[in-house]
């Protein structure tokens, strides 16, 4: 694929090719992620946590999401760029949801939007889709509802919640979403959902029986050593590497090792 589209992702699912997805929030990181060949870049509202240091995803604004997304879009040549609609930008009514989605598409150049929730936001999703904007769903643990759940623990372990999740996933397919994220639910349930719909299911903490995987880039690079859920595989320990490098720089300045004769004019 020269350029990933929502169609390519659906093709990948029918060919049994797994989809790779990572977050990015800025130009430099997005360039690296795109060059490395990741299929989908998510400008997640997790920027609220990893970029801004908030405890939850709730405070990030639509303007801030557009700033992150436009920085990412300028770097990307191949990946599909999906942008989260932040808390408060789509829950009031379908018109607000459409207005926010249009702002994202026009002002950032992103390729699709993602919203958290099932049948509660069905009319909003339909309205956005009718405007020609591709929508990715997000079910299971939905961090914008943290104050309703009270914890970030595994979702849909009980029959009732599992059944609602399956219905919601089928509804998302039926109205025309091109993919759905399932966050932190039992692997068996996630596989069941993936097997029951034809659009790709991208998992985070949802096991290997789905059609693709997503992680927060700062977590998988080990830049953040405070967050260690079971589903997280760390590919580097950048926290340690960077602290060492930066500590060395600070020491070199103090000792006047830096700059040397070759590092000046
Ligand atoms: O904001 C985010 O990073 C996300 C992923 C965890 C799916 O929504
Ligand atoms: Na998100």
TrEMBL record:
An example Gene Ontology biological process: methylation
Entry keyword Methyltransferase: yes
Key words of the record: Cytoplasm, Magnesium, Metal-binding, Methyltransferase, Pantothenate biosynthesis, Transferase
NCBIfam families: panB (TIGR00222), PRK00311.1 (NF001452)
Active site (record annotation): 183
Annotated GO MF terms: 3-methyl-2-oxobutanoate hydroxymethyltransferase activity; magnesium ion binding; methyltransferase activity
Cofactor: Mg(2+)
Residues reported in the UniProt entry to bind 3-methyl-2-oxobutanoate: 45-46, 84, 114
Assembly notes: Homodecamer; pentamer of dimers.
Residue numbers binding Mg(2+): 45, 84, 116
Protein family membership: Belongs to the PanB family.
GO cellular component, one term: cytoplasm
The protein's role, per its UniProt record: Catalyzes the reversible reaction in which hydroxymethyl group from 5,10-methylenetetrahydrofolate is transferred onto alpha-ketoisovalerate to form ketopantoate.
Catalysis performed (reactions): (6R)-5,10-methylene-5,6,7,8-tetrahydrofolate + 3-methyl-2-oxobutanoate + H2O = 2-dehydropantoate + (6S)-5,6,7,8-tetrahydrofolate
Organism phylogeny: Bacteria, Pseudomonadati, Bacteroidota, Flavobacteriia, Flavobacteriales
Free-text remark on how the cofactor is bound: Binds 1 Mg(2+) ion per subunit.
Keyword Ribosomal protein: no
Name of the protein this chain belongs to: 3-methyl-2-oxobutanoate hydroxymethyltransferase
Pfam families according to UniProt: Pantoate_transf
Subcellular location: Cytoplasm
Annotated metabolic or biological route of this protein: Cofactor biosynthesis; (R)-pantothenate biosynthesis; (R)-pantoate from 3-methyl-2-oxobutanoate: step 1/2
EC number: 2.1.2.11
Signal peptide: none
EC top class named in words: transferase
Superkingdom of source: Bacteria
């Amino acid at each position: 694929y020269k350029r990933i589209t929502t169609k390519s992702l659906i093709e990948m699912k029918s060919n049994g090719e797994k989809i790779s997805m990572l977050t990015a929030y800025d130009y430099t990181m997005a360039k690296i992620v795109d060059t490395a060949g990741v299929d989908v870049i998510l400008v997640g509202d997790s920027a609220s946590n990893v970029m801004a240091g908030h405890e939850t995803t709730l405070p990030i604004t639509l303007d801030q999401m557009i700033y992150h997304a436009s920085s990412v879009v300028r770097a990307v040549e191949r990946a599909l760029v999906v942008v989260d609609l932040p808390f408060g930008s789509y829950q009031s009514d379908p018109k607000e949801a459409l207005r926010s989605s249009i702002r994202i598409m026009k002002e950032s150049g992103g390729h699709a939007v993602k919203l958290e929730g099932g049948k509660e936001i069905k009319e909003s999703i339909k309205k956005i889709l009718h405007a020609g904007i591709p929508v990715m769903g997000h079910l299971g643990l939905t961090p914008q509802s943290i104050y309703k759940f009270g914890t970030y623990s595994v979702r849909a372990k009980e029959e009732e919640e599992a059944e609602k999740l399956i219905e919601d996933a089928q509804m998302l397919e039926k109205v025309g979403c091109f993919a759905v994220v399932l966050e932190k639910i039992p692997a068996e349930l996630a596989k069941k959902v993936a097997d029951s719909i034809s659009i790709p299911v991208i998992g985070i903490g949802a096991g290997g029986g789905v059609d693709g995987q997503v992680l927060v880039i700062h977590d998988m690079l080990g830049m953040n050593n405070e967050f260690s859920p079971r589903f997280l595989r760390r590919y580097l320990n950048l926290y340690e590497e960077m602290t060492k490098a930066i500590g060395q720089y600070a020491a070199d300045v103090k000792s006047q090792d830096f700059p040397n004769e070759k590092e000046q004019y």
